[in-house]
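Problem: given the chain below (304 residues), write out its structure.
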Amino acid sequence: MENPILHNISLAEFSSFFPESNLIGLGDDFYILNAKLTKKHNPLLHPCRFDGYMIIYCESGSMNLTVNLKDVELRKNMMFVNVPGNIIKVTELVDQPQEDMQYVVIAMTKEFVSNLMSGDNMVFASTLSLIDNPVMAVNEEYATHLNYCNEQIIKIIQSNVSFKKEIVGTIMSGVLYLIAGLWSDTLKSMPQEAPTNSGRSRMIFDNFVKLVEEYHTMHRNVGFYAEKLNLTPKYLSKLVKTSSGRSAPEWIDAYVILEAKNLLKHSNIAIKEIVYKLNFPNQSVFYKFFKMRTGMTPSEYRNS
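Solution.
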């Protein structure tokens, strides 16, 4: 087990894994790069959380990832979208000549993306869809438009014009709408229908998930999140269930279980320390919690 703890990667840390010549950015808020991911230049070699939004568009080559411990394959003309809170790792770079491995990576802080969201421009607000379906195919028409936008962003950043951040933000807003179109097509092709909900409900649900991402290791009571959102626990539970098909406790428990699984599989710390990290009163309570939701004890899962 090479990585003793799960760690969070900031945008600045993420960018440090790549040669400066490949990076084009705006401070520590936004980066775009043409990447050739290798074992040397792979910030996702170990399980981690990238504390921001990331778009990886595969122009050629192939890689296998795990996203929240689920296997995902990213091939040519496919796009992966990461939202904050996801646990991600590149499990394999498919063996092929390095010149055939080409990816466009756009990485943004939560604050940068938040400033792009106004009115109906809520591409990343569909948290449920992005968590469950992080990869989509990119057809030729969309690829042409996305490549054009990427080229314009690079030109603006490399130019001497004023208001670069605002101009890049405007172009990125268009990119998010393109991704929204792809996402809509992807979801329509799936057998299940995405739950319908109002704009306000969607916003509350998204804020609930963000709070769960931040506090799930400390608070597992719905009342805590309801208070943070100025709602009653009953109303929050109803809204979350309507918006996602899962109850609020199920969302909280899912994040706790994901955290526990990652620590059990990708660290060598003692289970009693995991119990402490996840704020359980004792090992007995943690064992019952884990087995009820996975069918296995923590020890059985670690050794499986």
